[in-house]
Design goal:
Layout (H helix, E strand, L loop, with lengths): L8 H37 L7 H35 L1
Length: 88
């Protein structure tokens, strides 16, 4: 629509309806693509016959990693304490 003209209400309505139609169509297509992509990823990442096993393994790995991190922090702190004691 050109600016500077007083557009009739009917013309505005038509234009808005056309816009919303195309928007709806685009979002529908986008949603379908997203769903397809999600399904592909799900198939890629699931271990056949192992329901929930992977997430359990992931949780265990994360837990171990956190424990190691805590341990290394303790060691660093201890080393710092020893170093300061040796200086004095």
């Amino acid at each position: 629509m050109k600016k500077g003209h007083a557009t009739s209400a009917a013309a505005r309505t038509r234009e808005n309806q056309r816009r919303s139609r195309t928007r709806r169509k685009e979002t529908l297509e986008k949603d379908q693509r997203r769903l397809a992509r999600g399904e592909e990823n799900r198939q890629k990442h699931t271990i056949i016959g192992g329901q929930g096993k992977q997430s359990e393994q992931k949780a265990i790995v994360l837990w171990l990693w956190r424990e190691e991190k805590k341990e290394s922090k303790k060691n660093k702190r201890q080393a710092l304490i020893l170093a300061t004691e040796n200086i004095t």
